[in-house]
Amino acid sequence: MSLAPIASDALPEMLADQPIERVHRDGTEYVLLGTAHVSRASVDAVDTMLGHEAFDAVAVELCESRAQGMRDPEAFRRTDLFQVIRQGKAGMVAASLVLSSFQQRLGDQYGVQPGAEMKAAMDGAEHAGTRVWLVDREVGTTLKRAWRSVGFWQRFGLLGSLLASVLDREQIAEHEIEKLKQSDLLESAFSDFASQSEPLYRSLIAERDAYMAARLREEAARDPAAPPRKVLVVVGAGHLKGLATALREGQDDPAATVAALASTPPKARWPKWLALGLVLAVFALIAYAFVRNPALGADALRNWVLFTGGFAALGALLAGGHPLSIAAAFVAAPIKPFRPGIPAGGISAMAEAWVRKPRVGDFETLRDQVSHWSGWWRNRVARTLLNFFLVSIGTLVGEYSAGIHILKSLF
Length: 411
Prior knowledge:
By secondary structure, the protein is of the alpha/beta class. The protein has 2 domains: 11-262, no CATH class; 270-410, no CATH class. The chain is built from 21 helices and 5 strands. It has helices spanning 11-15, 40-52, 64-71, 81-86, 90-110, 116-127, 139-149, 152-167, 174-179, 185-189, 192-196, 198-220, 240-249, 254-262, 270-292, 294-318, 323-332, 344-355, 360-369, 375-378, 380-410, and strands at residues 20-25, 28-35, 57-60, 131-134, 230-236. It has a 5-stranded mixed sheet, with helices on both faces.
């Protein structure tokens, strides 16, 4: 069933300033409507477009997890923090929270929920019984590909951009929000860094343009006997030009394109080998110290424990951790080389989550609280994630500090 057209005298005025592209391909007309993800005008444009033209399907720039979050806002409170930490997903969850808080901050200024235009598109289509296509790549995959596409030093720029989006409290004028139609949410959160890094721009924008174009072609071809005649595609306007080009010109097999762009590149091995090499070098120095003088060796071993455990515990302390999570950090960090698996930050964070179990209210207020830097210490979920990162950083600092101190004591 398609959406029935409703005459609207206001249509030309309503959509006059909205970015729209029409692409005809394989018997289907794709009407691409560019939106700002926090904009009343974009919500109105979606409603007007749905009411004016008949569509056989509505595609939205959402992945399954983001769509589920919009359909079931309560789902996040069922998150198992222990599993998030054990499975090494703490970084992705924290990054997603920062991005959603950036968007939430914009929406709070004008009473428009983030992604309201996407929800309006889904609700309008479902109300009329029209198919809804989720065509964006999973946000976790995009963040991983972006992270692994840039060099070691550029990653500090990524972290700095994410941090700046949390700390920046400046109010943004509504006409400036409309200017976000010229960029993507992820690109906006990373600010100028994205435009200056070709690998990052490719991961955040260009790859998703190609992915969404392939997904549209894939969905349209599901029923060759009755392909959809017209499809409304609601995307952030930063994707409009690239998506239209990819949709017109793409000749590769769409399923193969989707599979290739949905894969996660392997981690670079050199950081792991570098860290392992550092630890082995330090323990070689400790062994050498024992050979030279047992008392000197005991001092070197003590310094290893104090530096690694001390800095890890300091990280937990700075995160506002419970005394038990601080103690867990102190104990776990020095024995890291003999305990492969969950890092010291993970052990400390799990101790924090066990002692200070997140309450329902923590999940309910999580996105609002993390939009301000102080909320990361007030919310139990956010504080657990913060504990993980600060303890992990502290452990790394402690290892380098211990190595330097031991080396100086021997030579």
